[in-house]
Amino acid sequence: MTHRALFLLPALLCLTGCQRETQVEVANREKILLVGNSSDPKSLDPHLVTGVIESNVIRALLEGLVADDPEKDNAYPPGAATHWEHNENYTEWTFHLRPDGKWSDGAPLTAHDFIFAYHRLLHPELGGPYAEMLYFIKNAAEYNRGEITDFEQVGVSAPDDLTLKLSLKEPVPFLPDITRHYTWFPVPRHVVLKFGKMTDRFTKWSDAGNYVGNGPFMLKDWRFNDRVETVKNPNYWNAANVKLNGVRFIPVENFFTESRGFLAGQLHTTYQLPPSLVDKVRATTPQFLRQEPYVATDFIRVNTTRPVLDNPKVRMALSLAIDRKLLCDNIMQGNTPAGTITPTMGDYKPDSVVSFDPERAKALLAEAGYPDGKGFPRYKILISSSGSRAAVEALQAMWRQTLGVMFDITSKDWGSYVSSQQSLDFDISLAAWSGDYLDPTTFLLMWTKGNGNNNTGWHSDEYERLLSEAAVQVEPAHRLEVFKQAERLFAEAQPILPISYRSRNYLLRPEVKGWHPLLLDNHNWGAISLEP
Amino acid sequence: MFKVLLSRFLQSVIVLFVLYTITFFLCKAMPGDPLSSEKAMPPHIKKVVEEYYDLNKPVTVQYANRLGKLLQGDPGPSIRLEGRPVAEIIGQAFPISFQLGVIAMFVAITIGIPAGCIAAARRNGLLDTLSMSVAMIGICLPSFVIGPLLAEYFGRKLEALPAYGWSSSNPATWVLPAVTLGLAYAAYLSRLTRAGMLETLSQDFVRTARAKGVPGWKILVRHCLRGGLIPAVAYIGPAFAGIVSGSLVIETVFQIPGLGRHFIKSIETRDTSVILGVTMLYGMLVILANFLTDVAGIWLNPRLRKSA
């Protein structure tokens, strides 16, 4: 009897557990999109977060003045605003809100909600980590830093409930693009104030049950590390055209687990496909594989305050010794070789300054005083524990073979990795940057003196002069030309060694319709449907 | 017995205080900054956030403030989950870890103890060799190997069970994680049970019972089981505490929203409030488990009962 029980137990467990329908099949029936979202959002309050993971959820719950186009990066469909206009030099913008705009609780959405949101994010007492995104507005930076205390001086106003006027500190022809970032979204004034003061950092307003948004979906439930469940918002202005009944964001941190879950019918799309699985998926289930360009660049950050690395010839030699194509073909699958920091964005195509040139690399290193790497200090490459060790091992080998210099690899957990870079306590590090909006400034402004993301010790007065010159240009083509000059100067100095432009490798089920490749990967959840 | 209980209670208080102190200062000694993020915070913003989380005060003041709050049952707010009360995080995650632990322990006991008994009863026989060999494999193969294998086969290939996820109301989601977690403990339990049973079976009273013609199964169940289980029971308590607090690998492989994942995340992000809250909870759990194990041991072992 005991023996039988032993053998029967697993069988019984399987029988009780056998699934008749996969989760995807159930979700298809219920019209719920199952999205792998990598990690738990830090918060769903758009004023307290900075990340992509949060953005994915917040864009389902809130909508900005301009909506995300489901198919094109450079199309600007109406969102909370129906139309907008600007003055000749792009410094004054007027957005006209839709009269039928409502919050999910039925309250009318007005221009004052936007002003409240900008006031809240910029208020020094809130400590919004990404308030800088609003610094395009006149006096926004000054108010945020506490240099002025009267919000009336900040360039936002509402002549009436449905008109929002923005005065900018410089011409911003790409403003409609920026307003699609969640830092520019409205927050429900009446709900935020119901649960506390405007500047209270954490209140219950963003909890499930309290959260009120103006996006296509409403927050139904948030179970930490498990799921963020959203349901269709009947008060959304375009609710009639929203085909999904909800989107479920599932924070699967282990990408192998996530891919396995997808292939077992538990997700409609994954956040990422591990590079090592790309070939296998391509061979076995190619119908699911997606490899699409993404506005992000992988690079090596150099601490230019270190002796030897402070020499631009050394940095250029290291950069020219990287065989980027080899790396992209074999390790960073789907990525493309990068010659600059900024990937191509619309009309902006920066000149590539570096490519694999071992002879020139050797010559430059010799010129710098280290022929065949003799006398070159043994520095370390810093990576985060989740970084690509294979990529840096390949770099290590390339530098040893081509230049005769040896770098060791040192791995730190994420917190220590970030801190080490911010305190310039590293030699070189493997890093990446993803754009927040489709304009080169999202990549170029960070390399100015004192910018918290520079972390190289490098700065150039001429570079900053060019950026300032570009900032006041009204003519878009000329503006981009000045940016190209700035980028060329930056690339010739090589405070960072560009490696590859990112591609997003992920899995998507064919029944998901209305999902198109987008550079920022900001899919309009309201435009997606499930058609099994 | 009352004296034993009182002494245990006082010991526990001291242990928890020392645990809190060591954990707090270790957290503060860790390199890195809890407010570090890929997109650096401007200094004037960082100042505001540091003030909100009490990070601008001297370490000793932070120590005393946190201890005071903890004594009132409030572990404070999480930094990683932007101000969320740690009590809310634990309140959501702990029941899941506990449920997983209970089911895994059930799997471990229902497999491990019968297997150990059978192995002891058939000492040096085929069943003994077989079950102990399987147990050895179970001990040697880590759960991060077994887990993905089970998930790949039963989850992806057969699509018989969910490859990941956890729902308290859907037993299908329990099977793979509980079996993976329970197997390693079942292997240990079977070996401990076998050893305990063999020792009891070698006692004089067993020989006497056999001489009297008592059937083998009766000797095993009625006469030997209680004494033979003492080593296994002594193991079950701490093992249960370990199973609940240390199922991180299983929680990651099977995407279970338990406490282990919060714990590791909090260490990675230097989220002191969560680290302290979870450590204290685990500490209390281990103390409680050991206490219950002692009580069970006293109940099973008459000699201990007398000394208590």
* Spatial gap, N to C terminus of chain A: 47 Å
Distinct helical segment count of chain A: 17
Quaternary: heterodimer
Find the biggest chain interface: A-B, 65 and 66 residues
Outline:
Chain B: One of its GO terms (cellular component) is plasma membrane. With 532 residues, chain A is of the alpha+beta class.
Chain-wise SSE layout:
The complex is a heterodimer of chains A (532) and B (308).
Chain A: H1 2-17, H2 23-30, E1 32-36, H3 52-61, E2 81-86, E3 92-97, H4 111-122, H5 140-144, E4 156-160, E5 163-167, H6 175-178, H7 189-192, E6 217-223, E7 227-232, E8 246-250, H8 255-263, H9 275-284, E9 289-302, H10 312-320, H11 324-330, E10 336-337, H12 358-367, E11 379-384, H13 389-403, E12 407-412, H14 414-422, E13 428-434, H15 441-444, H16 461-471, H17 476-493, E14 496-507, E15 512-513, E16 529-530
Parallel strand pairs in A: 1-8, 11-12, 11-13
Antiparallel strand pairs in A: 2-3, 3-5, 4-5, 6-7, 7-8, 9-13, 9-14, 10-14, 15-16
Chain B: H1 2-29, H2 43-52, H3 59-71, H4 86-121, H5 126-140, H6 143-157, H7 172-201, H8 204-211, H9 216-228, H10 230-245, H11 248-253, H12 259-268, H13 272-300, H14 302-307
List descriptors:
heterodimer; A: 532 residues; alpha+beta; D-Maltodextrin-Binding Protein, domain 2; Dipeptide-binding Protein, domain 3; four-stranded mixed beta sheet; 17 helices; 16 strands; 18% strand; globular; disordered N terminus; B: 308 residues; mainly alpha; MetI-like fold; 14 helices; 76% helix; transport (chain B); cell membrane (chain B); MetI-like_sf (chain B); MetI-like (chain B)
Structural features, described:
Chain B: It is found in: Cell membrane. The complex is a heterodimer of chains A (532) and B (308). Chain A is built from 17 helices and 16 strands. Chain A is α+β, with helices and mostly antiparallel strands. The two termini of chain A are 47 Å apart. The interface between A and B is large, with 65 and 66 residues.
